[in-house]
Amino acid sequence: MREIIFDTETTGFDPQSGDRMVEIGCIEMVDRLETGNSFHCYYNPQRPMPKQAEEVHGLSDIFLSDKMLFADGVDELLEFLGDANLVAHNAQFDFNFLNAELVLCGRKPISQFRMIDTLAIAKVKHPGAKLTLDALCSRYGIDRSHRIKHGALLDAELLTQLYIELTGGRQIGLGLSADNDAGAAALPLSGKTAALRRKFIEPRAHSASEEELARHAAFMDGIKDPLWAKLTG
Q1: In sequence order, what are the beta bridge partners of 8?
Q2: Could you give the strand order of the β-sheet that contains 21-30, starting from the edge strand earlier in sequence?
Q3: DSSP per residue, 6-49
Q4: Are strands 21-30 and 33-42 parallel, antiparallel or unpaired?
Q5: Catalytic residue from among 126, 150, 206, 216
Q6: What is the widest separation between alpha-carbon atoms in the chain?
Q7: What integer pLDDT is reported at residue 143 of this predicted model?
Q8: For the whole prediction, is pTM greater than 0.85?
Q9: 83-127, pLDDT tens digit by residue?
Q10: Do 1 and 173 contact (CB within 8 A), yes or no?
Q11: Helix (H) or strand (E) holding 55
Q12: Can you state the angle between helices 91-104 and 70-81, rounded to 10 degrees?
């Protein structure tokens, strides 16, 4: 199963009011393991960057002025996304901006049936808790010390680790057979979670031997005035 964990940075909150996507970062996973393939790109939004947005992600008008337009790099992005499910934190926000950019350059929007929202998963697992990416990384022991400002690729990398933790860690599918044990040993570590490996032990016989029965009878005979004798007498 191929999945793309992604994040975006934008000029604001609402693409319908003219806000644009200025950065996207994507991490590829296959069968819940990172493949090492990623996609990252900055885009010129063709509009000024509001101060409040720049304070969040640090992307200025000067920095973005020589970056490509989204339409000029859309084919490369769509090729990387393929038909995989797309995982994001508060995914509706990122889908709205990604699809708005696709529509602006005459492309079909991506179906929301492909959307997986880690925020929705976290709400079910941790009702009432703080569910920002930072808070959830702290909860699961994911190192975010290098996250000074928001960045699409950095946040996608953190979200990849969080998504694994929210959906059962690295232990899904483990069993007690020797083959499964070997497979577990090959799994990489994620945060504080490691694959559990168990040594197979042959079950012991559960019926008592003649010697054990004799010792038990001798022990019972040595009990003076047992309660069960009064109940059955």
Answers
A1: 24
A2: 33-42, 21-30, 2-10, 85-88, 115-117
A3: EEEEESSS-GGGT--EEEEEEEEEETTEEEEEEEEEE---SSPP
A4: antiparallel
A5: 150
A6: 99
A7: 87
A8: no
A9: 999 999 999 999 999 999 999 999 999 999 999 999 999 999 999
A10: no
A11: helix 51-57
A12: 120
Q: Can you give the pLDDT at residue 148? A: 58
Which parts of the chain sit beneath pLDDT 70?
A: 147-149, 170-206, 228, 231-233
| Closest CA relative to residue 6, chosen from 101, 121, 88 | 88
Which pair of tokens denotes residue 19?
């806000």
Structure tokens at 233: 């007498």
Please name the amino acid found at residue 182: A
SS (H, E, C) 117-179: EHHHHHHHHCCCCCCCHHHHHHHCCCCCCCCCCCCHHHHHHHHHHHHHHHCCCCCCCCCCCHH
Active-site residue flag, 206: no
